[in-house]
Amino acid sequence: MMHALILASIVAPLVGAVAGAPAPLPREPKIPAAIDVEDPPVFRLADVRPGQKGNGYTVFSSRSGPEEFAFEVLGVMRGYLGPGEDVIIAKLSGAQIERTGVIAGMSGSPAYIDGKLVGAVGYRFGQFTKDPIAGITPIERMLTGAPLPTASSSSRRPVFVDTPWGAAEPIGVPLVVGGLSPAVVEAFAPLLRERGYGPLVAAGGASSTTSSPAPTRFYASGPIAGLLVDGDVTMAGIGTVTWVKGDRFLAFGHPFLGTGVSEMPVSNAEIVTTVASDAGSWKMGQATAPVGRLTDDRLHAIAGTMGDRPPTVPVTLRFDLPGPRQRDDQRPLTRFSVARHKTDTPMFCAIALANALQDRVAAESGGTFDVLLDVKLSTGDRVALPARLADRTATPALPTAFAVLAGLSRLVDSEFATVDLVAIDVTVTGRPEVERERIVSATVVGQARAGEKAQLVVRLQPVYAAARDARLEFTVPRGLAPGAYNVVVAGDAAAARIEREGGLVPVAQSFADELAQLRATPPPGSLSVYLVREEATPRLGGRALPGLPSSLLELTSGTGGGLGAGAWEERATRMQRTVGAGVVVGEARARLLVSEDP
């Protein structure tokens, strides 16, 4: 089934209206003369009437160039995209359209009435409808823009509207990825859907060598690719250019990512073929030569300029991996760049990383892998994000990618600062041994007094080996009253949870605090020992406030107090941490008997 990238509506100004006589463009000879002009005359929305006929152009295959299709106006949907935001409804026709219907990737195809540009094909009506009904976004709105977005209109979710012609939605933008592994598609599909994307598995890659000549600039009806990831790994959304003047262009007739102001590179695209499907036809293509940048990503269109490229996030991967395949691999580095996006740059990085790793280690059968990210931030900070994975059969591609996604997301999701990723270096090293151990049990040796050392025996179960005992020495906290206490030993993942839930991670008051917490995360391969006690924790506004003086608790415990009495919660004190070369998972509890001083 064809999947497509469908973006939501965000309302904001696009580009100012421009005037000027049509001028010929230096283009390929295959481009029809009727559309080979800059800033063509506009057919006003006020003059659109049912029954009017027109023609549009789009590229079904780059070998054939732009091809004409016809349409008949059925009516105008008033307020379709909001108050004063109308859409022209038209029935498309022509030999290609009869075969394919409305096509994912034809978003932005220019439509003309009486030789004047009326708008861009931007919406489809129903997935299995018999007739190719489309919505045309008026060019007047694409040129002049729209009101600023509101909180209720800023979702990236698709716009679905019931009409007499079926449920309407923006035409899909095929998301093409160079060499995307099916395993990567399957793993990230839920996250992509959650964020408003629908992945399309399609052939495509970053290569300037194509079967047809790539123009050095955009032209109306020609393909355009928004480059999410570019380089040794590629990911791009493909649509169609509607309008050009000088170095400026408009495309799509609806949003791409709906970000408002944009900093995305754009390129030409080669359309290899158009695949006809009852579930929704789509253009199979690939990004080719870079052309310029997006500057706006709004309700009615995307807009940008040709000639210059925006800053992106360069990502470099270095590999030192085990196995015979790696000894023969002469590719020490993988490089790609990722578009800057307010929230989704970490996801693009993770998908590209998973794809690159899958290509490198798909033939390997398990091992231990260390991943180190060196991340440069727009704040001037540099952060190291380590991860370690060990498995008997699985390759590290997907677990590594999700670990990267989690770490990068924590960096850019700051409550206190606007943080952009500037550059990322990733080093992946591996060894064939599966150095993974599971915590089975723990026992405290004898009794101990407050302030003295004690021993904890931890039973560990390695992979492919007999269980072993590890002895950890820890210091009992001073001032601890005699009695029985819980001791917890945990691997790094469990330790991170214990520290969050046990009050060891204070509430951040600044971005510096957030960075400090990130850097204090239990490192890979660590064994941490905690003393865990239950306390009645007061709350203020739903937030736990551990460690308040008893005098303050007494003052606020009455009916007039501002603090609510919370439930009993576990409070943790870390007593020891050791770091090994492998991976330790799980946790276990033991009883610590604290005796009285002699």
Structure at a glance:
This protein is mostly beta strands and 598 residues long.
Beta-strand fraction estimate: 35-45%
Overall pLDDT score: 81
Number of helices, where a helix is a run of at least 4 consecutive DSSP H or I residues: 9
> Which structural class is indicated by helix and strand composition?
mainly beta
Number of strands: 33
End-to-end distance: 76 Å
Describe the global form. Answer: elongated
The percent range for helix content is 10-25%
Q: Low-confidence segments, ≥5 residues, pLDDT <50?
A: 1-27, 146-158, 202-212, 558-563
Tell me the domain tally: 4
**Strand order of the main beta sheet, please?**
3-4-5-9-8-7
Radius of gyration: 30 Å
Largest sheet: 6 strands, antiparallel, barrel
Description:
The chain is built from 9 helices and 33 strands. The protein starts with 22 loop residues before the first strand and ends with a strand. Strand 24 and strand 25 form a beta hairpin. Mean pLDDT is 81; it is low at 1-27, 146-158, 202-212 and 558-563. It has 4 domains: 29-170, Trypsin-like serine proteases (Thrombin, subunit H), CATH 2.40.10.10; 202-306, no CATH class; 313-431, Dna Ligase, domain 1 (2-Layer Sandwich); 437-594, no CATH class. The strands form 6 sheets. Strands 3-4-5-9-8-7 form a 6-stranded antiparallel barrel.
